[in-house]
Design a protein that fits this description.
Blueprint (H helix, E strand, L loop, with lengths): L2 H24 L2 E5 L4 E5 L5 E6 L9 H31 L13
Antiparallel strand pairs: 1-2, 2-3
Helix pairs in contact: 1-2
Length: about 110
């Protein structure tokens, strides 16, 4: 493979990565905890977009439980987003192992 081909491949990969990043911004991934009492929606980069809490779980005497449910839902949603990101990056890179992290992503 000559240098020109290598540069062309790099440009194509960069274009694919840019497209993936744009798609990840629009992606919506949700996760729930407490049997659906708390639901968190994140974008494909893991940024929290929405939190929905069933009023039945709100108890002034047990704020710690609500905090735990929110944390669990956020963590699960972000884990799902990380998996989506990794799958998309593998597609773009032809499953080449890339040791670098993309700026703005996880």
């Amino acid at each position: 493979m000559n240098m020109q081909q290598l540069l062309k491949m790099g440009q194509q990969m960069q274009s694919q990565i840019s497209e993936i990043q744009a798609n990840l911004d629009r992606e919506e991934i949700s996760a729930s905890s407490g049997g659906g009492m708390v639901t968190v929606t994140v974008d494909g980069k893991g940024g929290v977009k929405a939190v929905a809490i069933d009023p039945a779980v709100v108890d002034a005497d047990d704020v710690e439980m609500l905090e735990d449910l929110v944390l669990a839902a956020v963590s699960e949603a972000q884990n799902k987003a990380r998996k989506v990101y990794e799958e998309e990056m593998q597609k773009a890179t032809g499953n080449l192992p890339l040791p670098m992290k993309m700026p703005g992503l996880f």
